[in-house]
Write a structure and sequence with these properties.
The structure is a single chain. The protein is an alpha/beta fold and 965 residues long. The chain contains 15 helices and 58 strands. It has a 23-stranded mixed sheet that branches. A 13-stranded mixed sheet has the order 5-9-13-16-18-21-25-29-33-38-41-44-43, with no helix packed on it. Strands 20-24-28-32 form a four-stranded parallel sheet, with no helix packed on it. α6 runs antiparallel to α7, α8 packs across α9 and α12 packs antiparallel against α13. The termini are far apart. InterPro entries: Pectin_lyase_fold/virulence.
């Protein structure tokens, strides 16, 4: 045969017979020649969807090659797509070319989605396998049952990519299989990539063991080649067998799996020299589920080390300017490097070996003495670098590191509170980690919703090198996850940060001002809305004495404020009752924004944690603002309508001011202590809710301290004393209101006059002089509901026991007791916020004291109200006791204890949800009763109309009968 040339052809959907045997179906091209005198070239062609039994694309057999002619085979700029062979033939392939040619070239080809491989073969002993093979600039991807198998003297692979190929074949095949049976063989792999390939035996197998000589003299050079994400089940990714000289330089081995000796590189029976230079070995995962191309099979691929060199006696081994690093998983007892029969000079200071964080690197030298011949003892020294994890319950943030044969010692420390040391150090849910120093890590409880939520493994990512950006959720970042990422801003009703471009909810401010004005109007007018609604809903129940609605609201408000403080972050009730019913009601009564609704409302992109915290004060201040505005509007309306007097009675408005002070006390106190809440991070005191602020240097914290000292704390005692004085008429309503708003100046004022009275020693000295000079004129209509004193007393002590004689004060001061209780609960809850167990114990003891105090005093005028309050406080004591058991924030709750914790959580949910559930149940029953009432009314109306109609009809009949008679 002279030559074979195919240019610009397309072979698609072909199948043919090989030697007229029906069972042997050839694919696109079949050529069997006795002599090949010229070249074979196939250029610029496509092979699509061809099918054959043994070969699907090209079968070229040369029986008697003329070596002197050195014919060439060139495959250039070809596309092979979706060609297949019969899987029943284990030796089937896509292209098979026998050793009848001197030089074989495959250049600029694309091989994708085929089954079967490319085989260049010769038969040792019959032919001189001395040809050359060059494969360059070729993409080989997505093939199944694929192997590039070459038996030749010289092979050069340049700029070739093997991507997502699989080889599920007998053990002698790999994705790339190179063999030689002649002397002075030379194999080069240059500038190539092996990515995500799967081989049942291995991925790259280079074997010179077919040479019959005792000592092989071939060489393998692998240069500037990357092996990434491959899985070789038996032999690992790269196996070199019986090669005289091996050079691996400028290469990357990344995240490879499988193998028995090593996942990345295995060298056996190297007889001369092994050089590894400027090469990096990196591993990021300890195992991976690997799916072969075509989805035919799935395998769990383990990681089993970087390099293994065995059965290589007296070999010159040098590893220079290279690194072996596994990160970030934790491995235990993995042999990273195994070198048998090592000689001095294997490593120098340019080589770095790193184990994962939380593990140590151990060097073991194993000395083996054996006597192959009696009297001739031989000593073999093997070096093994292995990993060793820190003991259970300890951690380290450092790696085991070695340069040459010296190592960096790794210390293991006890697991910190809030940390998870079951694997490389991680954070417990809702904790944030930071380094205290070079060795120690601490964890800080985060504000709720800032840090990561619980996961399947009950841990959160922690990276010591970028700790400020790890463990956060909701587009948060920074120290303690306190600030939003770039181009994000705080949302009002969520802890998640909102994109600035989405901050267009200006309508919320209109709704906010409308609702606060309506609430202020309600406090002024106090229309009997709830009483009227209650009458209509309970029309079938006999009427009782009214006036207890305010008492019930006060009881529920007090209970919910306490219960909200008792809840433990991280282990509170995570269900509908807590998140959707209890907390919204609690925060509504406290004038607080409920931040767990996940409403991403953002009016303007200016909100920060500080502004959002101060916004709680804005709610109270806005209601204060609306009260005088309503008074002026009322006055203007009177003047416009020419009513007299022009100025309406001030009593209801001043009563609304007092009620706002009392209702807003918890919101103001909670906001103030929130502003003062600081934590120590890296020996710097920082604001808990936005750690970029350093404490003790912020003007708003100094103002918060002044508010506590000058207003919130003295208000408790001032309210206690002036309540009795107001009831007995010793001070005016205006003085009382002024003292409530400015308690500390009032205290100084009273103290001044008390000291002056003692100095003058006059019995008739007026301790608190009346302002405006006409106290009785101001209060001339005491019995009127519009008087200042009557309005204030209605708010202050309406539901409480009144004095029965001049010697007793009754319980008209009890509002100050309730205020003091709230103050203590809020302050203790803030003081022990980070210590859930201590906080729960303190608050439980405090609630128990409140219960005993209430039983002894019985402050309410009605006995059934006292009983209700006793039950409410008893429930709080039980909730506090439950939270003592739940106060394990930062500790893992699992195993047998999980069931008991679930019972405690459910018990807390039931107790907190009793009143809301009873209210909802009553509301449903009342709605049903209204429906029944409507049916009854309609039935009565229809019956009345029927009776009227019947009466008229009877009258008409009687009239007609009279006329006829």
């Amino acid at each position: 045969m002279g030559n074979l040339s195919l240019i610009n052809n397309t072979f698609a959907y072909n199948q043919g017979l090989e030697e007229n045997i029906p069972t042997k179906i050839a694919g696109a091209i079949y050529a069997r020649v006795r002599k090949l005198l010229g070249d074979v070239e196939i250029r610029n062609s496509e092979f699509l969807c061809n099918y054959g039994a043994l070969t699907s694309i090209l079968a070229l057999y040369v029986e008697n090659s003329q070596l002197s002619l050195q014919p060439r085979v060139t495959l250039q700029n070809l596309t092979f797509v979706n060609n297949s062979y019969n899987f029943n033939y284990s030796k089937g392939c896509g292209i098979i070319i026998t050793e009848g040619m001197g030089f074989k070239i495959m250049s600029s080809c694309k091989i994708h989605g085929n089954s079967g491989g490319i085989v260049y073969v010769c038969e040792p002993g019959m032919l001189r396998c001395s040809g050359n093979v060059l494969v360059e600039d070729t993409m080989i991807s997505g093939n199944i049952e694929f192997t590039l198998s070459v038996m030749t003297k010289s092979f050069h692979l340049k700029n070739v990519s093997f991507v997502n190929n699989s080889c599920i074949r007998p053990s002698q095949y790999s994705v790339l299989r190179l063999m030689s049976a002649v002397s002075n063989s030379s194999f080069h792999l240059d500038q190539s990539t092996f990515l995500n390939n799967f081989g049942e035996p291995g991925v790259v197998h280079i074997d010179l063991s077919l040479l019959e000589k005792k000592a092989a003299d071939g060489q393998v050079i692998i240069n500037n080649t990357e092996f990434r994400g491959n899985f070789g089940r038996s032999e690992g990714v790269l196996k070199l067998l019986k090669v005289n000289r091996i050079k691996i330089q400028n290469c990357k081995f990344i995240n490879n799996f499988g193998g028995i000796g090593s996942s990345h590189a295995n060298v056996q029976r190297c007889l001369g020299m092994l050089i590894i230079r400027n090469t990096s070995f990196n591993q990021f995962d300890d195992s991976q589920v690997f799916e072969s191309a075509g989805g035919l099979s799935k395998h769990v691929a383990p990681y089993l080390g970087f390099l293994t060199v065995t059965n290589s006696e007296n070999v010159l081994m040098r590893i220079r300017n290279s690194s072996f690093a596994s990160d970030p998983f934790s491995t235990d007892s993995i042999a990273l490097i195994v070198v048998e029969e090592v000689r001095p000079g294997l490593l120098d200071s340019s080589v770095r070996i790193e184990t994962p964080i939380n593990t140590k690197l151990k060097l073991r030298n194993i000395t083996e003495i054996y006597e192959p011949i009696i009297g001739n003892k031989q000593v073999t020294i093997s070096t093994i670098f292995t990993t060793e994890r820190c003991p259970e319950g300890t951690y380290s943030i450092h790696r085991g590191t070695r340069r040459r044969l010296s190592d960096k010692h790794v210390n293991c420390y006890p697991c910190p509170v809030g940390g998870n040391c079951s694997l490389p150090l991680a954070a417990q849910p809702n904790f944030w980690g930071y380094p205290e120093n070079e060795d120690i890590v601490s964890f800080q409880l985060c504000p709720e919703g800032y840090c990561c939520l619980p996961s399947a493994h009950n841990k959160c990512f922690y990276d010591n090198n970028s700790y400020q950006h790890s463990g956060c959720q909701g587009n948060r970042t920074g120290i303690l996850c306190g600030k939003c990422k770039q181009n994000f801003a705080e949302g009002l009703f969520t802890t998640e940060c909102v994109r600035m471009k989405d901050c267009t909810h200006s309508w919320y401010l209109v709704v906010f001002f409308a609702l606060t004005s309506l609430f202020a109007l309600y406090l002024v007018r106090k229309p009997p809305v709830f009483e009227e609604v209650g009458k209509q809903l309970t029309w079938f129940i006999p009427r009782r004495k009214e006036g207890n609605n305010q008492v019930i609201c006060s009881l529920d408000s007090t209970a919910r404020k306490m219960a909200g403080v008792l809840a433990v972050p991280s282990y509170g009730v995570k269900n509908l009752l807590r998140n959707e019913i209890v907390l919204p009601l609690t925060n509504l009564l406290n004038f607080k924004l409920y931040a767990n609704t996940n409403w991403k409302i953002c009016p303007w992109p200016i909100f920060t944690p500080l502004l959002k915290t101060l916004f709680h004060l804005v709610t109270v201040m806005t209601i204060f603002f609306w009260i005088p505005v309503l008074y002026l509007l009322h006055s203007g309306l009177n003047k416009l309508c020419k009513r007299r007097p022009t100025f309406p009675p001030a009593g209801p408005y001043l009563g609304a001011v007092l009620e706002t002070v009392l209702l807003g006390y918890s919101a103001v106190t909670g906001t103030i202590v929130r502003l003062l809440h600081c934590v120590s991070i890296q020996e710097v005191s920082r604001w808990y809710y936005d750690a970029q602020y350093v404490c003790k240097h912020q003007w708003w914290q100094q103002a918060a301290i002044a508010v506590i000292v000058l207003n919130l704390f003295p208000f408790i005692f001032t309210l206690y004393f002036i309540s009795v004085k107001l009831y007995r008429g010793k001070i005016s309503g205006k003085i009382f209101l002024l003292a409530s708003i400015l308690p500390f100046p009032y205290f100084l004022f009273v103290l001044y006059h008390y000291v002056k009275k003692k100095i003058t020693k006059r019995a008739d000295y007026q301790e608190i002089p009346s302002t405006a000079g006409s106290f009785h004129d101001e209060e001339h209509d005491t019995n009127s509901s519009t008087s200042i004193k009557a309005s204030l007393l209605e708010v202050l002590c309406g539901p409480f026991t009144k004095p029965q004689d001049n010697q007793s004060n009754g319980r008209i001061y009890w509002e100050s007791i309730l205020i003091g209780r709230r103050f203590l609960l809020i302050v203790i809850g803030w003081w022990q916020l980070e210590h859930a167990l201590m906080r729960s114990e303190c608050l439980t003891i405090l609630c128990l004291f409140y219960l005993l105090h209430h039983i002894s005093q019985k402050p309410f005028a009605h006995s059934w109200v006292n009983v209700t309050e006793i039950v409410s406080l008893a429930a709080l004591v039980v909730i506090g006791a439950l939270n003592v058991g739940l106060a394990s924030a930062g500790s893992d709750v699992s195993g047998i204890n999980q069931r008991y914790f679930s019972i405690l959580l459910m018990s807390e949910a039931v107790l907190l949800g009793v009143i809301p559930l009873v209210s909802v149940t009553l509301l449903i029953l009342c709605i049903l009763s209204q429906t029944v009432r409507m049916v009854i009314i309609l039935w009565k109306a229809a019956r009345a109309r029927w009776l009227i109609f019947k009466r008229k009809y009877n009258i008409q009949l009687s009239v007609q009968g009279g006329d006829e008679s």
